[in-house]
Each structure stands twice: as structure tokens, then as C-alpha cells.
Specification:
Two copies of one chain form a homodimer. Chain A is mostly helical. Chain A has one domain. Helices cover 76% and strands 7% of the residues of chain A. Chain A is built from four helices and two strands. Chain A has a two-stranded antiparallel sheet. In chain A, a hairpin with a 4-residue loop joins strand 1 and strand 2. In chain A, helix 1 runs antiparallel to helix 2, helix 2 runs antiparallel to helix 3 and helix 3 runs antiparallel to helix 4. Chain A is elongated, with a radius of gyration of 23 Å. At the A-B interface, helix 3 and helix 4 of A face helix 3 and helix 4 of B. Chains A, B: Its main location: membrane. Chains A, B: Keywords: Cell membrane, Membrane, Transmembrane, Transmembrane helix. Chains A, B: It is found in: Cell membrane. Chains A, B: This is CASP-like protein. Chains A, B: It is a multi-pass membrane protein.
């Protein structure tokens, strides 16, 4: 009787444990992927630079990312989030090994949420400025400087992609953590 | 022996149930608070309008929120999130009544995360534009139109507050849901 109870317990907990381990492994892979995306974003924006082929005696016409504070925020935030994702791999690996760990998962949900907010905020602020840079705004008399700095604008627009991919990955990570916690 | 086991089970589950109910009630209150904040943000931005006391024959100098697409996005998103928060009160109330409900909590975590992303995105995009409106950008030759439209700028800056409060509330909601799910 006792043995059969233990056996039935094993039968019901084994697929659950397997599913949790599967979720943890996917969590690990998604973190690596998001870290690469945010690193690419930070590098792409941080190295964007264009100098016009002409110059007056007093001016050099040049566009660099630190001309606009939102782009500095974008590069800083993506670097921080990338660093966090790499560090969180330790906790994520711990979750693969110890499927019943609970506190580490709640800590990850909280930190993921904060980082998700940070990266969303940086990507949106940069996207708003990139939009104005492309299309300008006649109501505010803001000139679209992308008409001159084509290469620079291509780089800053492209750098948004990695960041927005990271945003989607974070939503998946939080959802997966929620499911994983509920399976305990 | 059996009775004592049941009793000890009751003793350990009762404070846990009480804690979960407490978290659910706080969840409900925070949702009402965030709904009011996002509604205030949407109204404050949506009704911001200023007309200059002078006009030429062909132009009227006027600033309205739909001059800039990010402000339209801000009003729309805050309205959607406010609507979602009001609707989510039903699920939140259900969680107060049925403390062991699990699927409804995971659904809430997922939807909260998506809405958190939306409201963060809208608040950041609007904040980026408000920053440029206040300080301009000499590198991009963008003129700070707040030097003319003082009242309008006060309104749009103020409207950001409610939205950023909602951002913080969402982080708390997601964390509380995580803790609540783990206590099952």
C-alpha cells in the first residue's frame, strides 16, 4: 500500500518535473538570445557615427549617438540589461538543476520585470526620437535630420530591432516563470 | 493521530490563506489606484490645448496633443490600460473570493506584463518628446517649443506623472502575483 502510494506519487510528479526542467532550459536559451540582441543593439547604436564630406571653417557636420540624451539612455540601458541577462544565467542554471527551487524563481520574476521595464522604456524613447529624425514634425518645426545623415539613421533605426526582440523575450520569460512557479 | 494531522494542516494553511487573501485585496486596491492614474493621464494629455493670443491671416498658432503621434499613442494606450484595469477588477475580485485559483492568476500575470510594457512604452515615448519640447536639441536644430507654449507644456509634463505611477504599480502587481502563486 505504502509502496504503491509512493509509486503513484512518482508517476504524477515525474512529467511535472520534466516540464519544469524543459521550461528552465528554454528560459536559459532565451536569456542567451536576449543578451546577444541587447548587446548588438548597444553596439550598433554606440558606434553609429557619420561625418559630412564638407566642413566650414568653424563647423564640422557630424552626427554621433551622444548628440541626443535618449540615445545615451538607450546604449546605457541595453548594456545594463545585457549584463543582467548574463549574470541571471547563473540563477537560470540553478533552476535547471534544482527544479523545486522557489525563491530564486520569484527573485527572477521581480528582476525580469524591472529589466523588462527598463529595456521597453529605452527602446520606446529611442524609437520616438528616431521617428522624429525620420519624419520631422512640421507643427513643432522639427526638421528631419535623416534627410542628411542617411547612414547614421540606418544604424540607429536598425539598433532598435534587437531591443524590441528583447522586449518580447522578457514577456515570454515572465510568463514561463509564472507557469513554472505554479507547477510546484 | 489522524485528527492531529488534520489540525496541524489547518494551522499551517490558515495563515497562508490569510496572506493570500491579503495580497489579493491589496491587488484589487492597487488596480483601482492605477486605473485612476492612467485615466487622469489620458484626460490631462487629451485635453491639453493652447492657442496663442495672436494670429496672422493664414496661420493660427495653436498646440494640441494630436500634433505629435507619440502623444496620440500616449492617450490611446493610457485609455486602453485604464479599461483593462477596470475589467481586470473582476478577475482580481474572483481571486479574493477563491484564494486557491491558479489559472486566473497566471492569466493576470501575463496580461499585466503586456499592459506594463504598453504603458511603459507610451510613457517613455511621450517623456522623450516632452524632454525635447522643453530643452530642444541644438545638434539636431530642434527648437524647444515650450518657450512659447507654457501652459500646454505644463499639462503634457504633468500628464506623465500618472502614467509613471501606473508603471510602478504594475511592477508591484506582477511581484505580488508571483508571491501569491508560489504560496499554493
Amino acid at each position: 500500500m505504502k509502496i504503491s502510494a509512493i509509486e503513484s506519487g512518482e508517476v504524477s510528479s515525474s512529467p511535472r518535473k520534466g516540464m519544469k526542467r524543459g521550461l528552465s532550459i528554454m528560459d536559459f536559451i532565451l536569456r542567451v538570445f536576449a543578451a546577444v540582441c541587447t548587446l548588438a543593439s548597444a553596439l550598433s547604436m554606440g558606434t553609429a557615427k557619420e561625418t559630412m564630406p564638407f566642413a566650414t571653417r568653424f563647423f564640422r557636420f557630424r552626427a554621433v549617438f551622444h548628440d541626443l540624451p535618449m540615445f545615451v539612455f538607450f546604449v546605457t540601458t541595453n548594456s545594463i540589461v545585457c549584463g543582467y541577462l548574463v549574470l541571471s544565467l547563473v540563477l537560470s542554471f540553478f533552476n535547471i538543476v534544482r527544479t523545486i527551487a522557489m525563491k530564486s524563481r520569484i527573485l527572477l520574476v521581480f528582476l525580469d520585470t524591472v529589466m523588462f521595464g527598463l529595456v521597453t522604456s529605452a527602446a520606446s524613447a529611442a524609437a520616438a526620437i528616431v521617428y522624429v529624425a525620420h519624419y520631422g514634425n512640421p507643427n513643432a518645426n522639427w526638421f528631419p535630420f535623416c534627410q542628411q545623415y542617411n547612414y547614421f539613421c540606418g544604424r540607429i533605426s536598425g539598433s532598435l530591432i534587437g531591443s524590441f526582440i528583447a522586449v518580447v523575450v522578457f514577456i515570454m520569460l515572465i510568463l514561463m516563470s509564472g507557469i513554472s512557479i505554479s507547477r510546484n
